């Protein structure tokens, strides 16, 4: 059974529920700037060298953010339904991104253009609060990932990921999960085979 398609209003309400409370007028402002986008599996959402101009909200789907290091792809983030992603450095410095973003599944995504978000935030404390909470969440997610790969054993990294992102573990290809956890696919296979 196919899930019903969310409207821009549904997404505005979801963002308000998750990050802030909003009046009808504020929901109208937020709904007015949301840009719905659809990507097929394997399609690129943002290419390396493009400037990120949006904060993205995944209504449905799975995305991967990655970069190249010594000609190898390194997965930096895996995003799933009802989560936010952005290339934060590119977004705020308004410079080309070192990161590429691809859809790992057919994905329905809503873009919040930064310039429009900042414009409407000037007139709404609640939209400012939502914007701040989105940025805080993004920074925390980055910190959790950095700490995970710095301080945890391979087995604990995988266990934490299963707890924090169970849907991603079920849906993302193992090669990307291994890359995200900074281990080889062979190590990941061994870790997954361990009891408990």
From TrEMBL:
Highest taxon in the source lineage: Bacteria
A Pfam family assignment: cNMP_binding
PROSITE patterns per UniProt: CNMP_BINDING_3
Occurrences of domain Cyclic nucleotide-binding (ranges): 18-120
InterPro entries the record matches: cNMP-bd_dom, cNMP-bd_dom_sf, RmlC-like_jellyroll
Protein's name in the database: Crp/Fnr family transcriptional regulator
């Amino acid at each position: 059974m196919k899930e019903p398609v969310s409207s821009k209003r549904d997404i505005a309400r979801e963002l308000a529920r998750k990050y802030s409370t909003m009046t009808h007028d504020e929901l109208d402002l937020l709904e007015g700037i949301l840009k719905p986008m659809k990507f097929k599996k394997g399609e690129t959402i943002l290419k390396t060298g493009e400037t990120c101009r949006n904060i993205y909200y995944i209504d449905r789907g799975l995305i991967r953010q990655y970069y190249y290091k010594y000609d190898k792809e390194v997965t930096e983030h895996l995003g799933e339904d009802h989560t936010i992603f952005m290339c934060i450095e590119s977004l705020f410095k308004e410079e080309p991104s070192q990161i590429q973003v691809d859809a790992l599944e057919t994905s329905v995504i809503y873009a919040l253009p930064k310039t429009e978000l900042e414009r409407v935030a000037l007139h709404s404390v609640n939209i400012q609060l939502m914007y701040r909470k989105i940025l805080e969440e993004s920074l925390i997610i980055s910190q959790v990932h950095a700490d995970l790969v710095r301080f945890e054993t391979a087995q604990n990294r995988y266990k934490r990921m299963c707890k924090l992102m169970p849907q991603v573990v079920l849906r993302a290809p193992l090669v990307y999960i291994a890359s995200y956890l900074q281990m080889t696919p062979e190590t990941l296979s061994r870790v997954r085979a361990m009891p408990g």
